[in-house]
Every structure is written in structure tokens, then in C-alpha cells.
């Protein structure tokens, strides 16, 4: 019995030592697992923070992209409006140039008309026009019809049209009948001096 009790005691001691060894091993494993869990938790939290930062950055990038797209759309719209306005401005400038040319033409016609009216009034008053300057001229070239006088076919220079066309002619107009050469001698002498 002693032997049995001694064996029992040794078995208990041996079991206690094994249990203690197992307990110690268990505590070490639990401590290792706790450290691993703590490290994994810490890593998980770090990854979540990084993910949140990335998602925040992604959200900011998405928001920036949307703003850029809006600005680009507005820029394109403004560019189209500006191009349309520039086209209208070019058309208006062309119209202004046309109107200015038309205005110049009308002013010239008005000045010519004013000169013609002034000449007509002068002729009406005095039955003749005295030119003092060369600024305004009135030249009517339609021909001349003679009621009296000597008309000869030898004056015709253009046989096709039966017209007398003279370049730089000197014409003597006399109100009375020229009966002798003495009536026009002075005028002819002046003509020879030219």
C-alpha cells in the first residue's frame, strides 16, 4: 500500500507538474494570442483610418472632378456665346462699313445737288454763272443747238454719228450779227496770244 500511495503521490506530483506545465503553456499561448489579437486590432484600426483617409481623398477627388466638369461645361458655353457675339460684331462692323460708304455716297450726291441748285439759282438770277474758284464745277455736255448762224457740214468730225466733236475748242458767242471782221478782230487777237 505504501507503494501504491507512493505511486499515487508520484502520479499526483507528476500530474500536478504536467498540469502546471500545461497551465504555464496555456498562459503563454493565451498571452501570445492576446498580443497577436492586440496587434491585429491595432493594425485593423490603422487600416480603417487609412481607408477612411483614402475614401475621404477619393470623395474629395470625385468632388473636384465634378467641379472641374461643371467649370469646363460653363467655359464651353461661354466660349460658344463669345464666338456667337464675335460673329454678330463682325456682321455689325460690316454693316457699319456699308452704311458709311452709302453715307459718303449720299453726302457726295447731296453736295452735287447743292452745287447744282446754287448754279441753277445763279443762272436764274443773272442768266449766267461766274466761277470764282475751281472747287465746285458744273459741266453739262449735251451739245448745243443753234437757232441762227452758219452751220456747215464741214464741222462734222464723226461721220458715223454725224456729230461735231471738238477737243478744247475756243468758242465765240456773240449776241449780234457779225457783219464785218472788224467786229471780232480784238477777240481773235486775244485768241492768238493764248
TrEMBL record:
Keywords: Coiled coil. Residues 23-50, 82-109 form a coiled coil. This is Uncharacterized protein. It holds the Pfam family TMF_DNA_bd.
Amino acid at each position: 500500500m505504501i507503494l501504491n500511495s507512493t505511486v499515487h503521490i508520484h502520479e499526483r506530483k507528476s500530474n500536478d507538474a504536467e498540469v502546471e506545465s500545461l497551465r504555464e503553456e496555456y498562459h503563454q499561448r493565451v498571452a501570445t494570442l492576446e498580443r497577436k489579437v492586440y496587434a491585429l486590432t491595432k493594425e485593423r484600426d490603422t487600416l480603417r483610418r487609412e481607408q477612411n483617409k483614402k475614401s475621404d481623398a477619393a470623395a474629395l477627388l470625385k468632388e473636384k472632378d465634378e467641379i472641374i466638369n461643371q467649370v469646363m461645361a460653363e467655359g464651353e458655353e461661354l466660349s460658344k456665346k463669345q464666338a456667337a457675339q464675335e460673329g454678330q460684331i463682325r456682321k455689325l462692323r460690316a454693316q457699319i462699313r456699308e452704311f458709311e460708304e452709302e453715307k459718303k455716297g449720299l453726302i457726295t450726291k447731296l453736295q452735287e445737288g447743292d452745287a447744282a441748285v446754287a448754279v441753277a439759282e445763279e443762272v436764274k438770277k443773272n442768266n449766267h454763272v461766274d466761277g470764282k474758284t475751281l472747287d465746285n464745277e458744273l459741266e453739262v455736255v449735251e451739245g448745243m443747238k443753234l437757232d441762227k448762224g452758219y452751220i456747215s457740214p464741214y464741222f462734222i468730225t464723226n461721220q458715223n454719228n454725224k456729230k461735231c466733236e471738238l477737243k478744247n475748242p475756243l468758242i465765240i458767242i456773240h449776241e449780234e450779227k457779225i457783219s464785218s471782221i472788224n467786229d471780232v478782230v480784238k477777240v481773235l487777237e486775244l485768241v492768238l496770244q493764248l
